[in-house]
Amino acid sequence: MRDVVFTRRSGWIPNVIREDGELKLMLGAGADANHEPRTFTFSIKDAHLAVIREDLARHLLLWSAVLPLCDAAGTRGRLDESAATALLDPVLLSAPEDVDALFRRIPWDKGRLIAHGADIDLLERGQVCAAMRAATETSDGKRVQEHHAARRRAERGVTLGPLDTAILKYTGQYLHGATIPKRLPEAVAPALLSEVMRVIATAEQACAGMRIGRDPRRGKRATDKSDWDRVATTVDTAVRSAHPELVDDAVRTVSFLMCSEATDRSRNAPMDDDEETAGDRAGSGARPGKTILSFTDDKGAEKKWKAGGPRSATAEFWEFVGDRSAADNDVFTIEDEEMGEGIQLHFYADSIARITTERAGEGGSEPEYRVEYGLVDGLRAYRNLVSAFVRGGCAALDEHGPWIPDAAAFERARRERNAR
Fold first, then answer.
1. Cα 30 from Cα 32, distance rounded (Å)
2. N or C: which end of the chain has fewer CB within 10 A?
3. With a threshold of 0.70, does the pTM exceed it?
4. Tens digit of each residue's pLDDT (9 = 90 or more) over 355-401
5. Are the CB atoms for 13 and 24 separated by under 8 Å?
6. How far apart are CA 7 and CA 13, in angstroms?
């Protein structure tokens, strides 16, 4: 039989119960192997109950001291009740200076006390009783997050000024630097918002018109890393020049915001709008007479593009790549059967082969092909090559050389490039 004897408004603060006629402190902490909350109990006396009822600070200090014992129990172990019971008199009944001395010797959960209003400076100085004078029953988890974030920055030697802090709060990255940034003007004190917006305006002007395209080689919604780096560098340079007082964390969060927004615009645009290369709308058409192209991958999948459809050949090809590319599927081909030529893209090796038919097969003989290899420097170069082939076939690729007809010589060139 279990009856609740004393509880506070916050359901997580330990309750006092009577179980089979015995007073016990009951608290929830941690989780079992099935991720269900664990509950622990241990015996207390009437004198302990009296302090718990009247003194919120001592109640919270006891909770903070017991929680490490619960953590030690893990997902299935038993609470060390002897150790928990041994904390009762020193935490609840001792003089404040003795409690402070105890907390300098034992492990305790600082975050729990900070969440309930403890003075952080006093906690850091070991004055736990004084720190709990302003304790509250309600918990503020954000206060703990802010403390942890400040501590992580301090460990890196970072000190934020008021504007740095405001910028990080504006992007939502004050607590967690890995959070996707967004625009939160309501999180900034009105007195600083105009200064924050001047920094943002500097970044926007610096990267106006710059795009971050998608990288179909890594999936349908993957980002072109070279484009990302280019935008980030541009924004970093402009913001550091115009606002040299800002710390690196503030500058990086502004760059991250600009890059994330540019990426979202690209991901939400039709594939055709993501295909601009070399000043030309990639795949805006094909060379005269072209009616059908065949796209294939390394797994045997095939897709046909026909002229006169609603979408360009390059847009259809890169969508095919985005749908099919994978770690074990990174060779893609575009073939013009009518002209007897094609290109093969080797994403794993940053290379390409152009293939032309020298002599068609006749009378059961095999056709003869000329194969030439080229090195490719990133996605933008791949886009240019695909666009050029679609517009003008293999002949249009001459200017994108050099082209190496010997496979062994090409492999040597590739190794030399990779070694640089």
1. 7
2. C
3. yes
4. 999 887 676 677 888 999 999 999 999 999 999 999 999 999 999 98
5. no
6. 8
